[in-house]
Every structure is written in structure tokens, then in C-alpha cells.
Write a structure and sequence with these properties.
The chain is of the alpha/beta class. It folds into two domains: 123 residues, NAD(P)-binding Rossmann-like Domain (Rossmann fold); 88 residues, Regulator of K+ conductance, C-terminal domain (Alpha-Beta Plaits). The chain has seven helices and ten strands. The strands form two sheets. Strands 3-2-1-4-5-6 form a six-stranded parallel sheet, with helices on both faces. Helix 4 links the parallel strand 4 and strand 5. The longest helix has 25 residues. The chain is elongated. It holds the Pfam family TrkA_N. Keywords: Ion transport, Transport.
Length: 226
Amino acid sequence: MNVILFGENKCTEYFVKILKDEGHEITLVNSNYDLCRKIADKYEIPAICESDINEFVFKNANAHKADLVISLYENDADNLVVCEISKKTFHVKSTYAVVNNPDNIDVFYSLGIDKCISTPTILKQMINQDSIAYGIDKYFNAKSKNYFVREFQVTNKSECKNKKLWELNLPECCNVVSVFRNNEIIIPQGSTQFILGDKVLVTVSAQVINQVQKMFTDKDMQAIIV
């Protein structure tokens, strides 16, 4: 995939390394000359040292050939401009942007930005997930020692992969509480489909825990709470 990485961010080099290791073609646009030169030499990628955000820079970066543009500026307005030019002028298929103020996320999505990277929002969702697990575990510890709260991760060998919840025929003493996917929490319905990488939080009785484990993962059970 052809990726253009815009902006100055402490994680810029880390993003470049990840994308390079995955085999993507990367072009870096950054106003820091020393950083551009360092990353360009180290990872053997083209780098454009430029502080302005304009169509000329996009043309130099061959934006018309890009599959993905990622904008990492500390200013949300700059990230929005990068993604807007990418979409509207150069018809880039996908745009990802760092959103430093979570209140701006809805605006970004409404303007067609494909993915928003917001550290505060991710942390909030992680805390919410932990709170759900803690509350359930506290309840069962108080009521019964025969139930457990467990997290399973869906793998390629999982029986549940690409199946809907209603298709699994789970035992009565097992309940799927939540699904953690792409930094979002899903409250499952019967029509919820499990996909590779999903983290599934369940409450399950001791009598059927091995049976449930085989449905959700081919590996040893990983406990969130003991």
C-alpha cells in the first residue's frame, strides 16, 4: 500500500517503522529537516521537508497514487486540512487523522475522514471495558464461586470466527457481555458477528468453561480477572 505520512509527532518515526515492517511504501512530509533526513536515510524512503500544507506538496508526494494518507499534526485544523485535500482534490481512498480534542471527532467523521486517532477516547474506552469487567466480577464473587469472568481473543482457529452469536449454541450458564474491537466496545446482540482479533468478555460457569473456551479460542484461556 502507498502511504503518505504528514506532520510532526513524537511517534512519527515509530509509525514509519511499523508501516515499513509491514511492507508498505511510505512518503514522509515533515517540516523538521534533520528528522526528515534521519528517517529517509534510516528507512530508505522519500521525505519532503515542508511546513506548508498546499497542493504543491501533495503533488510532490505523488498523492494521486496514494492509498492512504495519515496526518499526525498537533493541531486538529491542520490534520483536517490534510485529509480534506487528500479526499477532495487527490481522491485518496483512506484518510486517518490524529484528533487531539475528542470534541472534534464527530466533525471529522461528518466531513468524510475515515479514521480518527484520539488517545483520550481510546483510554476512556479501555477504562470503561475494565469497569464492566470489574463490576461483573465483583457481583459474581459476592453471589457465587462457581462463575468466572473471562476474556477470549478470536483467532483463525476459533470456532466462533465469522459466526453470529445466535449460531454458537452457547450453554445457558454462559453469557457474552461485550466485544472489544478496534478500540470500541460492542454490546452484543444475537446478530453480532465475531471476527478475527475480537476480544470477547464472557461470564461462564465452572462446569462449561472448557466447552466455551474451545468456541472462542484455540489457545489457553486468558483471564482478565482471577
